[in-house]
Design brief:
The protein is α+β, with helices and mostly antiparallel strands. The chain folds into two domains: 123 residues, no CATH class; 203 residues, Transposase Inhibitor Protein From Tn5, Chain A, domain 1 (Alpha-Beta Complex). 40% of the residues lie in helices and 19% in strands. The protein contains eleven helices and nine strands. α1 packs across α2. The protein is elongated.
Length: 352
C-alpha cells in the first residue's frame, strides 16, 4: 500500500516526462525507484517489463530544460505544504552542495566545477539549495538548482530564492543562515535590502583577523563596514573548550555566544543532504539534466517519506518498498531480513 502511494506521488511530479513511450509511466518510475532504493547505477537494473538505462536517460533528455524539472518539484512542494507552513515560524538555510564527478573531459562542461570534494574525483557538479525549517522541527527542500561556472551570480540567486519563499509563505523568515561562501558585501547588501534577519559565517580576512587578535580569548561585537559600503555587526565568540574563535556577521541583536548557537542550526542542511543521499542514484553522466533529475528524485523521495510520517529511517523505508512491490525484491542483497511492518503507516503528518 505504501509502495503504491509512493509511486503515485512520484508520478504526480515526474509522470509527464515518461508518457508516450514504449513503457508505461509506472514502469519508468519503478525502474528509477529500484536504483534509488539500492543506491545503484541505472545500468545495473535489468528486468523484463522495465526500461533499460538508455531508455530512461533518453526520456530525461527529452525534457530539454532542467528548469522544467525544477518548476514541477516546486509546484508539488507548494501544493502539498502550503496549508501546513502558513502561520508557523520558520527559518531558511541556503547552501551550495557539490556532487562529485569522477570522469574526464569536463573542461567544456559549464556545470562542472573544479572542486574535488571526494577522493579520486576530478570535478563536481554544484547545486544551490534552500532548506526551510518549520517550528525548528519539520524541514524540507523548497528549491534546488544546478549552477554554472559562467554567468552564476551567487548574491542574485540567493535574493531570488528568498523573495520566492517570502512571497509563497506570506511573511519573512525568523532568520536566514549562510556559510562563509556567501560572505560578501553584495550578499549582505541584498539581505539588508530584503529586510530579513541573517547570520553569515565570516571569512577571516586580514582586517577581521586583526580584530580577533585584539579581542583575544573574549567575546565581542562591533559595528562593521563590509568593503566600506555595507554596515553590519561583527560577532566574535571564543569557544574555551576548543580554544577557537568563531566570527559571524549578523543583524540579530544577540550575544556572540547566542549567535553561534543559532548558527549551528545550519548543519541541518548538511544532515538533510546525507539523508537524501541514501536515495541518490549513482551516475557517470555529464549531462546536467540527468544529474539534476537524480538529485530531485532523491529529494522528493525524502520529502514523501516525511509526509507519510513513518517511524523508520528513509533507508529502511526504501528496503520495505523493495520487499513489497512486484519484481523488486530480487534487488535486496545483504540487507536486514525484516522490517517492522507495524512501523509502516500511510497516515500523513501533513494532510493535503
Amino acid at each position: 500500500m505504501v509502495g503504491k502511494r509512493m509511486r503515485k506521488e512520484l508520478k504526480k511530479i515526474f509522470g509527464w516526462m515518461f508518457s508516450g513511450g514504449r513503457y508505461s509511466e509506472d514502469a519508468y518510475i519503478s525502474c528509477v525507484l529500484i536504483a534509488a532504493s539500492v543506491g545503484a547505477y541505472l545500468e545495473n537494473i535489468k528486468e523484463e517489463g522495465l526500461p533499460n538505462a538508455d531508455s530512461v536517460h533518453r526520456k530525461i533528455k527529452e525534457v530539454g530544460e532542467w528548469e522544467l524539472l525544477r518548476r514541477c518539484y516546486k509546484e508539488y512542494v507548494k501544493d502539498r505544504l502550503e496549508r501546513y507552513v502558513r502561520g508557523r515560524e520558520y527559518y531558511v538555510i541556503i547552501d551550495e552542495t557539490p556532487w562529485a564527478y569522477y570522469g574526464g573531459n569536463f573542461i567544456n562542461n559549464l556545470y562542472l566545477w573544479g572542486y574535488r570534494k571526494e577522493r579520486g574525483s576530478t570535478a563536481s557538479f554544484l547545486f544551490l539549495s534552500a532548506l526551510i525549517v518549520i517550528d525548528d522541527k519539520f524541514k524540507f527542500y523548497f528549491d534546488c538548482l544546478p549552477v554554472q561556472r559562467i554567468g552564476y551570480f551567487r548574491e542574485e540567486a540567493v535574493e531570488s530564492l528568498l523573495k520566492e519563499i517570502i512571497e509563497w509563505i506570506g511573511y519573512k523568515p525568523k532568520f536566514v543562515l549562510l556559510d562563509r561562501g556567501f560572505f560578501s558585501h553584495k550578499a549582505i547588501e541584498k539581505l539588508e535590502h530584503l529586510g530579513v534577519k541573517y547570520i553569515v559565517h565570516a571569512r577571516l580576512t586580514p582586517r577581521i583577523k586583526k580584530k580577533v587578535g585584539k579581542v583575544g580569548h573574549s567575546d565581542a561585537k562591533f559595528k562593521y563596514y563590509l568593503n566600506d559600503k555595507v554596515l553590519t555587526t561583527l560577532y566574535i565568540h571564543h569557544c574555551k573548550s576548543s580554544d577557537t574563535s568563531f566570527v559571524f556577521v549578523s543583524n540579530l541583536e544577540k550575544l556572540p555566544a547566542t549567535i553561534r548557537q543559532i548558527y549551528r542550526n545550519r548543519w541541518k542542511i548538511e544532515t538533510e543532504f546525507r539523508v537524501f543521499k541514501t536515495a541518490l542514484i549513482k551516475s557517470k553522466s555529464t549531462n546536467i539534466l540527468i544529474r539534476f533529475f537524480f538529485i530531485l528524485f532523491a529529494i522528493t523521495i525524502s520529502l514523501i517519506h516525511k509526509l507519510f510520517s513513518l517511524k523508520i529511517s528513509l533507508r529502511s523505508f526504501l528496503l520495505y518498498i523493495l520487499r513489497h512491490l512486484p519484481l523488486l525484491s530480487q534487488y535486496l542483497i545483504n540487507t536486514p531480513a525484516s522490517t517492522n511492518n507495524s512501523l509502516i503507516s500511510t497516515t500523513e503528518v501533513i494532510t493535503p
